[in-house]
Every structure is written in structure tokens, then in C-alpha cells.
Amino acid sequence: MGSDLLQDIKYSVLDLAVITEGQSPADAIHNSRDLAKQVEKMGYTRFWMAEHHNMENIASSATSVLLGYVAEATDSIRIGSGGVMLPNHSPLIIAEQFGTLATLYPNRIDLGLGRAPGTDKATAQAIRPDRMQQVRQFPNNVRQLQQYFSEHHNENTIRAVPGEGTNIPLWILGSSTDSARLAAAMGLPYVFASHFSPQQLDSALRIYRKEFQPSEQLDEPYVIPCVNVIAADTDKQAEWLATSFKQMFMGVVTGERKPMPPPVDDMNTVWNLQQKMAVKQMLTYSFIGSKETIKKELSDFVEETEADEIMIASYIYDHQQRIKSHRLFAELMQGKDGD
């Protein structure tokens, strides 16, 4: 039953252009582009990149620029933001940037929108001093984007060119019930950040589905939970590979955002009990192991959440192992091998 359930849903990638120890930002960006090319062949639906700032381990700060670099190297996979942090930007500038992408790569661009800063408080202030005011304007700014992308906007004084008439699909990203209510009220698809903020997943999805209002873009609710996945030939190897990403999230807890380190044989030599518990709580929805292990656990998760699509974040130190993990995941989603 589990295998059949997974074969019915789409699967996609969230990428942060993570910089590993010994790597330059250019290396990380080239690897992201290569990963996009590889997962396109594996049947993934989307390749999204997320906006972050002032982080030594993440190279996806200029998100729209990177998306163009990735879109140019691929042919069919949808390319998008997971997401653009809209309060950091003018809606018109985002409309022009993504409108340009959609003009160059028609019917392939997604625009996922969040309202978090994607950084620390001081950096958020440097990006936009009136940011908190813009957070309150988030719903209006999303509507403004819809207008800029509409073909009916050509009589307005301020227009997005390119962008007008592209009708780029918008997505609301979130990790709380507030975002769920907004996505439902606007009739937009909803992506939940359960890969690092799992607490409100169930209540947010319940509210979103209950309050959903159909829109021009979407007739009925559409949900993508994002989860962490590290797949390998054996559970033991996957757990070893996962020590890199556990160390990276330990950096989130301690505030030390250093490049992602190589795996270690024993995490207890790296973290204390308090850090371990904090990381474990953040990474509740992490699927680590062989295809058989992940398939069973993920099937239960999909059944519980009634997900329409799954988006995976895979933080692995070695690029080839990362590609292999994505291949194994694609195979289990397609019901190949190991059934």
C-alpha cells in the first residue's frame, strides 16, 4: 500500500547552495546547477532555491540570479523560489525579476513567497530598515504581485515589463497557522517548512484545508510539506552521511553558521545533550536510511498529512553522494527496486 501511495504524488527539491568545508561559494553554486540537471532526468517536478543572507554556509542570497543560472542549464523541470522573502523587497522589483525569468523560460517558473527575513535581526535591518512595516503589508504585497503578473494590468501607470501577462503561479511558504490562513484566504498552494520547523504542521494543514477559498489560480487546496531526506544503500551509511547535516543544524542552534563539515563517526564527540535535543526536535521530519526504510516512514507521513507533493532538502557533504541520495529517493517514489 505504501509504495502505491508514493507513486501517486509528485516529488521536488529544495536547494540552498550549501557551502561545505573547503568549498568556495562558486563550487556550491556549480553543484546546485549540476544537481538540478541530474534531478530533472530523475523525474523531479521542481527545483527550488531559498533566499538567505549573511550566512557563511549558504550561497543562495541572490535567489533570482541563481534561478536563471539553473533554468538555463535545464529544459523541463520547474525552477522556483522556496522562497523569496517578500518583505525584503519591493513587489515591483520581484515582479520584474521573475517576470524576466518567466519570459526567458516560459511555463517553468514558480514564485514561492515567505515573510521571514531569511537572516538575523541586524542583517534584516541592513536589508530593509522598514522591514516590520513590510511584514504587515505582506498580504497586500502578494496581491500586488498578482496584479503585476496579470495581463489586465497594462492600463496601470506602474507596470512590470517583462512580467505582465506571465501569470506566474504564486505559492505561500510558512511554518505557522498564520501562513496557512493567508494561503487559504487567497486560494494559493501552500508549502510548509516542516524540514526545520515541525511544531505546527498538523494544525496549519488542517486550517488551510478547512478555510481554503478557490481562486483563479487554484480550485482546491494543494499542500507540499518539505522534509529532510538522506538516502543511501544501507541505514548505517545514511546515518553516517547525516552527521554532516546534524552538525549544520547544530550551528543553527549555537549561532555558528560555518560551512557544512564532513561526516563524523560519533556525534556525541561533537554535541552536548542540550544541542542534541534541540536539533532532534527541529529535524522531526527527517527520513534517513535505505530506500526500504525511507519508503515505509515516508508512506506513513504522506498518509497522515495527505500531501499532494513532497519537497526534499538533502544536506550531504559529498556532491556525488548527494546525487545518489536523490536518485535513490526518485526510485522509491517510482516504486523501483527494493519493493
UniProtKB/TrEMBL annotation:
Where is each Luciferase-like domain found?
14-300
Question: Which molecular function terms from Gene Ontology are attached?
Answer: oxidoreductase activity, acting on paired donors, with incorporation or reduction of molecular oxygen
Record's CDD domains? Flavin_utilizing_monoxygenases (cd00347)
Taxonomically, the superkingdom here is Bacteria
One Pfam entry name:
Bac_luciferase
Kindly state one GO CC term assigned in the UniProt record.
Answer: cytosol
Name the family: To bacterial alkanal monooxygenase alpha and beta chains.
Name it.
Luciferase-like monooxygenase
- Gene source species: Fodinibius salinus
The organism that produces this protein has a lineage beginning with: Bacteria, Pseudomonadati, Balneolota, Balneolia, Balneolales
